[in-house]
Amino acid sequence: MTTALARRTDYRLTFLVLCVGVASFSLLQSMVNPVLPTIQAALHTDQATVTWVLTAYLVSASIFTPIIGRVGDKVGKERMLVVALGALAVGSLLAAVAGTIGVLIAARVIQGIGGGVLPLTFGIIRDEFPREKVASAIGMAAALLAVGGGVGLVIAGPLVDALSYHWLFWIPMVMTIVAAVAAAVWVPESPERTPGRINVGTALLMSVWLVALLVGVSQGHHWGWSSGKVIGLFVIAAVMLPVWVIAEARSKEPLIDMQMMRIPTVWTVNLVALLFGMGMYAMFAFVPQFLQTPEVAGYGFGVSVSESGLLLLPQTVATFIGGIAAGRLAARFGSKALLVVGATLTAVGTFGMAFAHGELWMVLIETSILGLAFGLAFAAMSNLVVAAVPQSQTGVASGMNTNIRTVGGAIGSAVIATVVTSSLLPTGVPTESGYTHGFLLLAITSTAAAVVSVLVPVVKAVTHVVPGPQAEAEHDDAVATTTA
């Protein structure tokens, strides 16, 4: 056994490969957002249609993130990591050469398969890293998702100005190809597997309610919240969600283990993720718009797309710092404490945006506070979930947590879009009160996330280099004790 371990790739090289994959996925999440008007003009389409470039990616990633995580738990995380990165590369290539909006939307659906990169990354870290390195590595990988989102906003405008929007896909394509090849060569195969087959039936049920919910939420602002299509989609989601839960609970081989989802640490952190996602993704979407609002509107700063991205650079740096510091802080104070601090700082930053946004320096301070909060909270949520579940369920548990955060982001962005645009100036620009009410609503959800985070119970995981039945049993005993 010792000889076999000695031949395994050094965990630091493995981590480098994983970081490239996570960075590629996170860039594709955010780089497209600021340049949708450019894509709309280049592909001769309308605003309602071009929003599907975002919606298709969101829905696809939400479906495939937990599924790919679960398949990785069963057949091997390294194999599925290569598959997920390969899908990102293929989707990026197709998007880069797309000549019509339909092809671009199809490419974004393929890219969404890459959502499995994050849960697979957490699982591989737990399998391969020394015990004392697991928390900091997971924290950095999780924070990298938020960092990549910030970097995408920063570089999108200058990149399109200097080259074209096609390079928003060429660059991630190159990164993912490198990461996929490196993963196939250097990332060790998973020593931990979950026996059994993949439950296709429950996967389809999950896909139905997720698609109905996310399409309804994402398109509600365009179609009208009271339209028959939106109401019909919400009815389908409301019916199919409990059907899916019942089917999973009764299945001998569930895709998502409902007993795992009922672990107190898991469900409370998932609730925090839902509330936290509402604030984080909506801030990513609406702070740049606020900065770009012409000063003649009585607020805003009239900056360009490129300038608004650069003004968010301090936020990105703060997120990176928070992610790096999270490991050491968690070792000293615990991941729960970091989650409470991260959610509280998010509330502070969003309250600030609601009531003190008249000067640029105010916005820079508030977005920097938000960046630090994102880095700490992302790391804490990931570590708490990974620590609370058996090693064989790391991929699917972290995948669902990521998925729930994304669903929260979709809901938050859609609701805030409705609030912000509820009152418009004669020029068609939202009134300042629209943004104030929107940011205030996000502050309320962030405060709720902070309250729930205080209630999160903590499980001390058994994390080790060589997983085995005894360690798994010890972990299950710890979870059972906490549940009781």
From TrEMBL:
A UniProt-annotated Pfam family: MFS_1
Superkingdom as given in the UniProt entry: Bacteria
Tagged with keyword Transmembrane: yes
Membrane topology, record value: Multi-pass membrane protein
SUPFAM superfamilies in alphabetical order: MFS general substrate transporter
InterPro entries: MFS, MFS_dom, MFS_trans_sf
Protein localization: Cell membrane
Major facilitator superfamily (MFS) profile domain boundaries: 14-461
Keywords, in A-Z order: Cell membrane, Membrane, Transmembrane, Transmembrane helix, Transport
TM helices/strands, residue ranges: 12-29, 49-68, 80-99, 105-125, 137-159, 165-186, 198-218, 230-247, 267-291, 311-330, 337-355, 361-386, 407-425, 437-459
Protein name as annotated: Major facilitator superfamily (MFS) profile domain-containing protein
Protein's organism: Nocardioides conyzicola
